[in-house]
Automatic annotation (TrEMBL):
The lineage of its organism: Bacteria, Pseudomonadati, Gemmatimonadota, Gemmatimonadia, Candidatus Palauibacterales. This is Uncharacterized protein. It comes from the Bacteria.
Amino acid sequence: PGAGAAAYEALRQAMEHYEEAEKLRPAGNDDAILRWNTCVRIFQRNANDLRPLDEEPRLEPQLE
């Protein structure tokens, strides 16, 4: 538990850095855009597992 939230936060931070890098990039260098897009694809492929900590599924006790 919590690994999805940690990955979510790390990817969001990376995306923020790529957004800043895009503003500073030399003409023709699309690396920051491509890496930002990769983060989006990771989110899309793992939508059920990557969530902010406050959206982690809660484990409910099971009655037997």
